[in-house]
Predict the structure.
Amino acid sequence: MNQTAPPTAQDWRARAAVLPINGQAFIDGRYVDAASGATFDDVTPIDGRVIARVASTDQADVERAVAAARRAFDSGAWSRQPPRERKRVLQRFAELILAHRDELALLETLDMGKPISDSLAVDIPATARCIAWYAEAVDKVYDEVAPTAHDQLALITREPIGVVAAIVPWNFPLIMAAWKIGPALAAGNSFVLKPSEKSPLSAIRLAALAAEAGIPDGVFNVLPGYGHTAGQALALHMDVDCIGFTGSTRTGKLMLQYSGQSNMKRVWLECGGKSPNIILADCPDLDRAAATAAGAIFFNQGEMCTAASRLIVEASVRDRVLEKVVEASRAMQPGDPLDPATRMGAIVDEIQTRTVLGYIDSGRSEGASVLAGGQRVREQTGGCYIEPTVFADVQTDMRIAREEIFGPVLAAITVQDAEEAVRVGNGVEYGLAAAVWTRDIGKAHRIAKALRAGMVYVNCYDADDITVPFGGFKQSGIGRDKSLHAFDKYTELKTTWIDLSQ
């Protein structure tokens, strides 16, 4: 039987050349221009070309979108639908995402530079799975009856919170959005999505699929634009009941301030990370640990909040581990994101490229040793590409050991024992993820308990499933995405007390 060959790089380039791209906002069930008519250029980091002009929404558009979301919520067209009906529509939504997999993957790759193979195999399926999982969960979450006296009845019910606004980052445009869309819509809320101005295109396309699935007008809105205009206006809006934010810790703190300055809206934050990956001398498989360490920092060009950017290695195995990490990095050199063979793509834009290169310069000037990479490459393409970079001899007070870089830069820190590894691991303001590699299960438990992080991986890294919560300690955020716990963010608990004694 003849099988259709998978698309080649040439095929993807041909598709990109004719791909229709919509840059409008989506408000109250239809695509519209920004009220001001303003737009901004969407530039692909693949080669620096302008691929779309996108609506630059601001306060006036936020007013329109929030008003539409509130009308839809108050009408009950979605909020009072039986859970089984919301389930049916959201399942259809997930099916449509998969049906448009190639188009959405191409938009993701063009917009933020990740390899097309990752967009296809990771981003789009994970987005669909998230929506489908919350669809399936919504009619299986039960309310409660409190154990009160026999002549009293206390009901504890969940109600949708109202109008939810989500501000999401550019590194996983659809996945980060889906983690908020899924539970918020399943619970019956109306939703306003503000994608990053660096990667808005797939979110804009997603809006039409939501409408096609049967989500009522006004329930799902998309506002492309800048953080200091559309994002700030959403966060300060008196009729937005909840903000779900993923992005930098600095901006997350602003979200908290905006809540206090407005209506004390609920604020849920998933912010920065500087995750420690601890490899101890009794690691069961050093080769596997080293290969995983390379993937944990260089996947998605290092543009991950959970990126294992600090490799903390016990001294006796340091040289062997670093040799293997450097070897693995050589197989992850930047290439054309539209080539299915490419494992590492482009940095999202010129601003982020300069930021990452600045950190590399800082590491050199502070005395760290560059074992691999450290250079901008493929400049002749007009795009944004940086080699996977490995620093050794990193001290804990260096910027590359303390600050989130959000790029393919690994800082290797040598320690003498497990106790020092934990102290170093906990020695930053972040607490999103961490890992420890050891064959001693007792030691693994003790270290996992001691690490101040929302997710700790043992003999693996970045293991993932929609059924487990995602989020961090300290300045890595507040609240959890994913799992049934995410419903807590987008619902209010109500107690109804009934006196039966009369």
Remarks:
- The longest helix spans residues 116-137.
- The CA atoms of residues 27 and 64 lie 7 Å apart.
- The two ends are 76 Å apart (CA to CA).
